[in-house]
Amino acid sequence: MDPDPSPARRRLDPPLPAPPAALRRGPFRPGAFRSPAHGPRTAVVLGRWLGAALLLCFATGLVSHLLQDPPSWLAGRLPSRPVNGYRLSQGLHVVAGLAAIPLAGAKLWTVYPRLFAWPPARSVLHLLERLSIALLVAAVLLELFTGLLNTLQWYPWPFPFRQTHYWTAWTAVGALLVHLAVKAPEIAAHWRRTRSAPLPAPLPGRPTGRPTERPTERRAVLAATAAAVGAVTLTTAGQSVPWLRSLDLFAPRRPGSGSGTGTDSLPVNRTAAQAGTTAVPADWLLAVDGPGGYRIGLAELRALPQTTAVLPIACVEGWSADARWTGVRLADLLRRAGVPAGSTVRITSLEADGPYRVTEMPAAYADDPLTLLALALDGRPLTPDHGFPARVVAPNRPGVLQTKWVARIEAV
Fold first, then answer.
1. Which residue windows does the record flag with biased composition (Low complexity) (predicted)?
2. pTM for this model (two decimals)
């Protein structure tokens, strides 16, 4: 048996009264939770892992949000390099989010016996603490659930995904910071590895002798959790990490393996049929508006000096793929229309509706020599699903902003 806990430990783990006799059954019965794996040391270690995954997910998600919808003070400062910047940040976002799912399950399993502590609230402060934990758990589970279904492009809810996902993330991080502040003494007490860490506060009916959180059981839980996280990561990260493509068993998109349409394997999120752009007029003309605005057809665009660049398409769902794009530099088209360098550009698509039918491109992207009005993909003319007759491709830019079926380019 362990020696009597120290006064500091008793302050962290005060004894709890037993529930009424009518409730002394099921999870409230004496000795209902005896597994050492439910101890505080296990909870702290899993909490470190889960916290790291959630904070990485939050930081990279914030990058994605700011690139898609930058505030006015930031729009002119967004960088177009590195070329693979968004690919890296969004790939990390989805990988961290998927890894957080088994971590959240393990963490909840470790601490769920505390749901049955009696009394449910010992004071007003204790009640507020438990409510903050409920908010934290609800926000994290909603964030992971909606994020997972977003990777599948399945939205079975009536609310807008992007705005809900964004504000739920702030709620989860705020609740997490409150939880860390409240639990700081207990976290500090179990942060370092010890030979024999006491179990949490005794639940109803616990005998006087306090069993220890044995390292063997703790290591088994941590090893199983690490194995689950590793398996999830290795079998899904290949959609954004090229050297893991051969292990990409469960990711919804598998770039480079025939998952696209037509003769190429670049995935497509929104097809021409969905956008209503399958019938492009034979007399299609691109409008380039500015002081010397003009209209130009496809044959004339193809006769202009062409640039070829290997650029990734990286989407919010986590997949990304390199492709060889050929077309006219966007900056050349703008200078021909008399649009000065340093101008923000508005791009309009032929599609009738959709949240990204009209997008704005900051000057850093519009002036970048790698930003193209692409006419060909991997040496072949664009197919309708990839944006025929012309689409915009820019470095370090979310896929939803790589406008397809371009109809108009104008300076803002």
1. 21-32
2. 0.86
CB 176 within 8 A of CB 51: yes
Q: Indicate the SS3 state at residue 311.
A: strand
Q: Reduce the DSSP state of residue 323 to 3 states and report it.
A: strand
DSSP state of 82: S
Distance set, CA 21 to CA 30, 114, 119, 203 (Å): 11, 19, 13, 14
| Rounded CA separation 403/360 (Å) | 10
The number of beta carbons lying within 10 Å of the beta carbon of residue 356 is: 17
DSSP bridge partners of 213: 197
The residue with tokens 């370092």 is 192
* 320-329/358-361 β-pairing: unpaired
What domains can be seen in the chain, in order of their start residue?
Answer: 7-247 (no CATH), 272-411 (3.90.420.10)
| 8: enclosing H helix or E strand | helix 7-12
Positive or negative torsion for Cα 253, 229, 154, 84: negative
| Helix (H) or strand (E) run with residue 287 in it | strand 285-289
User: How confident is the chain (412 residues) per 10-residue block, as mean pLDDT?
Assistant: 43 58 68 78 95 97 95 92 96 96 96 84 87 95 97 94 96 94 92 60 44 74 96 92 85 62 70 94 95 97 98 93 96 98 97 93 97 97 96 97 98 92
- In angstroms, the CA 198 to CA 211 distance is 7
How far from chain centre, in Å, is Cα 364? 25
Q: Determine contact, residues 388/380, Cβ cutoff 8 Å.
A: no
| Structure tokens belonging to residue 273 | 């049929």
Tokens of 361: 């491109």
Closest CA to 148 of 102, 112, 111: 102
Quick count: other Cβ atoms within 10 Å of Cβ 42? Answer: 27
> What is the pLDDT at residue 195?
52
How far does CA 148 lie from the centroid of its chain? Answer: 9
